[in-house]
Design a protein that fits this description.
flat; 11 helices; single chain; alpha+beta; three-stranded antiparallel sheet; about 280 residues
Length: about 280
């Protein structure tokens, strides 16, 4: 088979001209481990399909045995464990699928043999992981604090839309340098860690230099409608180095909610200096 035919079978081109690459192999030496693992996995699934009635019978007996065990009163099995056993036909396949797909996703992002494949997974990783992290890390910077809670949402949406737009606009140029995607991604992750946790230095601002007013609380609600613990935020007016700042939704740490915390002389505003200044009440 000619090289041109192999490339034709390895990729397919849609009507709008977007090429979908099917090369999901990894760079050596990871490929020496992933290929046997995937062959073994395919063999297991083929055997399960070939003897599907035996497989279903064994799984059914295992499930029934679990139901019997959790209903034995003398064992006093916690209700959470019982619920997991009852829902295991749905939970276990999802766990196994996640246990396979998540490592595979990360390996293809950093170590895909085909540079274009690696670049495509880098785009997904950037939008699914880096954009939320970056938006969260910069939510305590001066610009977003001045805007308030809506600043975080606006930054997240802007980045979420900008990353794929830049990719498709400069795709040809990026694909010519796709072999740099992994070093660039590692550099971005290192910079985000440094900006979010380390920085250059910190400055402590005493209580005399800022005031809190208009405090309010919100109780977050999860997707099941269960309310969490209240989150308090206040308007913070700051006078620093001859400048006046006003942050409308400054989040309060838990220590501020007690009388001892409110009256503590050690209470202060911490400014961590990175590429941007990060403001946090302590």
């Amino acid at each position: 088979m000619s090289d041109a035919k192999i490339r034709e079978l390895a990729s397919a081109e849609s009507k709008d001209g977007v090429q979908v690459n099917a090369d999901l192999s990894l760079l050596p030496p990871l490929s020496y481990l992933s290929q046997p693992f995937n062959r073994g996995l395919r063999l297991v699934f083929s055997l399960m399909w070939r003897f599907r009635w035996l497989t279903l019978t064994l799984l059914g007996f295992a499930y029934l045995a679990g139901i019997v065990v959790i209903n034995i009163p003398m064992l006093d099995i916690p209700s959470d464990t019982s619920a997991l056993v009852v829902m295991s036909p749905m939970i276990i396949p999802l766990w196994l699928l996640a246990a396979y797909l998540l490592p595979a996703f990360l390996l293809l992002t950093f170590f895909a043999r085909n540079p274009k494949t690696r670049l495509g997974f880098t785009l997904l990783f950037s939008n699914m992981v880096l954009v939320p992290i970056l938006s969260y890390l910069f939510s305590d910077t001066r610009l977003l604090l001045i805007v308030g809670d809506n600043g975080f949402i606006a930054l997240f949406i802007a980045l979420f839309l900008a990353v794929p737009w830049l990719y498709f606009r400069y795709r040809d140029r990026l694909e010519r340098h796709a072999h740099w995607s992994t070093p660039a991604l590692l550099l971005v992750m290192a910079l985000l860690y440094w900006e979010g946790a380390i920085g250059f230095s910190t400055t402590q601002v005493t209580q005399e230099q800022y005031t809190l007013s208009g405090c309010k609380s919100e109780r977050p609600v999860n997707k099941h409608g269960v309310k969490g613990d209240p989150v308090w935020s206040c308007r913070l007016d700051l006078s620093l180095n001859g400048f006046e700042y006003s942050f409308p939704d400054m989040r309060l740490p838990d220590i501020y909610l007690s009388k001892e915390g409110r009256d503590s002389p050690e209470r202060h505003l911490e400014i961590r200096h990175g590429l941007f200044d990060h403001f946090t009440l302590r």
